[in-house]
Write a structure and sequence with these properties.
303 residues; mainly alpha; MetI-like fold; transmembrane helix; Carbohydrate ABC transporter permease
Amino acid sequence: MSSSASRRENTISPVANTLLNGVFLILSFLCVMPVILVVIVSFTHIDALVNDGYQFIPKKLSLIAYESLFKDYGTLVRAYAISIGITVFGTALSVMLMAMYAYPISRQDYPFRTFFTFFLFFTMLFNGGVVSKYIIFTQTLGLLDTYTALLLPLLIVPFNVIIMRTFFQSTIHPALIESARIDGASEFRIFFRIVLPLSLPVMATMALLGTITFWNDWFNSLLFIRSEDKYPIQYLMLRVLNDVQYLRSNVQLAAQNPEMMSNLPDESLQMALAVVCMGPLLLIYPFFQKYFVKGLTVGAVKG
């Protein structure tokens, strides 16, 4: 039986294997092409962009976008440090809180499982809006111009909690929990010593999603941060871009300083900002990649 089963195993011919590899190489290159184009445009002179548009081989190169961006090096480094700190601390706290929420509602013997699941699902459909959020954070909690205001709104993502709950239901067998109870393990010991080590794929997946969320967040900074020395990198980049666009649209300034305005980067600066901001994510993604697909697919087995 085993020999006949082995003979019936799916095999692929060398020609088909070569064709499939070629197709995937082309698709991979098409995915990387926009990133390559962004990097090239960030080094392209404004005159070449105006005359020729975006090109992979520009006629004229320039570092003016990066010179404008790194002119105030200390501010950029400080913004990077703030974003890294918020992202690392926020991601770790977010994953732990979501796991501690998802695990109880995944247990069939938890008496309030239905209530907290409905409460979680309800927040996916309705929210209080930006005005009520601003009032609560600034007047009720007094978190205006604090880093805490950048963390709290993003700590619990209901959809991610549901994915984690489904992963726990489909992966952590009740008999394993019961056997640990018989051995005298407490609920906290079961959670930290058994559940979390077995849930590494979904934890890594949620950590990657959380990292992207915290790193790319600029809207909460717009709402709550007032001090320039507390700007994270995304919001700082937005301010720089808005300042440059304002200068280019100022007719009076353009008439007084035509040479400066002609050399002021716009589109190349946007691409330089994108290169600076996406760097850390490109570095950390390979470490989470092997867990990402598994965490999402296993967590999507049940509804």
